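Obj.: predict assembly geometry.
Materials: sequence records (below).
Method: joint structure prediction, all chains together.
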Amino acid sequence: DQQVKQNSPSLSVQEGRISILNCDYTNSMFDYFLWYKKYPAEGPTFLISISSIKDKNEDGRFTVFLNKSAKHLSLHIVPSQPGDSAVYFCAASTGGFKTIFGAGTRLFVKA
Amino acid sequence: SQTIHQWPATLVQPVGSPLSLECTVEGTSNPNLYWYRQAAGRGLQLLFYSVGIGQISSEVPQNLSASRPQDRQFILSSKKLLLSDSGFYLCAWTRPPNNEQFFGPGTRLTVL
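Observations (raw C-alpha cells):
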C-alpha cells in the first residue's frame, strides 16, 4: 500500500526555469509533509516541510504547496539551477514515529 | 551540533554470510532511530525504528534484525544474507515536531 506516491520518476528543466515536483498521498492523518534532496551515494538531506494546517511554505527558492482536499502537494524551485539536479523525495509523517517516503523524482536541470 | 555516523561505507559480502552495520548518533539524547534501505532505482523503504534502548519495531518481515544496545547506537544485522539484501542502507534520527529526519552517509551493500 503506497501511502505516498511520486508518479513522475524523472523531470528535466532548463536552468532558470521553474521546476515543479508533485506528490500524492492517501492517508488523511498525515500532519507533516517533507521534501528531501538526495545526491548519489549520500544520505538524503532535509529541504523543506509543511504542516497540514498550512497550504504554503516558502524558503528561498523553494516553495511547497499543500492541497488537502486533493491530497496533493508540490515543490516549486524557482529559478532552477544545475546544482539542484538530484533525486527529490516526498515524505509524510503522522507526528509519531514513522515517516513514509515516496519513490523519488530525479530532477535534471540543464545549463 | 548533532552528527550521525555509519560504517562501513561499502561492503561486499557472499550470499549466506552474516551482516552487521552500525550507526551512532552524537549530540542528542534519546533520539528515535531508523534503518532504511534504498534498492537500486527504488525509494526509501523503512526497515526498523526504535524509540529507546532495547525497543525495536519491524516494518518489513525479512531476514534482517535490528538492535539498540545503547541510547545512541543502532545496529542492523543478518545471520545469512540473501542476494535481495543488496542495496543502500541508511540510518536516521528524527527531531520533533515535524519528524525531520537526519540521515547518515549510508552503507552500500553488495551481496554476491
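Conclusions so far: Chain B touches chain A at residues 32, 34, 36, 42-44, 46, 49, 51, 57, 59, 88, 90, 92, 94, 96-106, 108 (CB under 8 Å).
To do: check interface contacts against the pulldown list.
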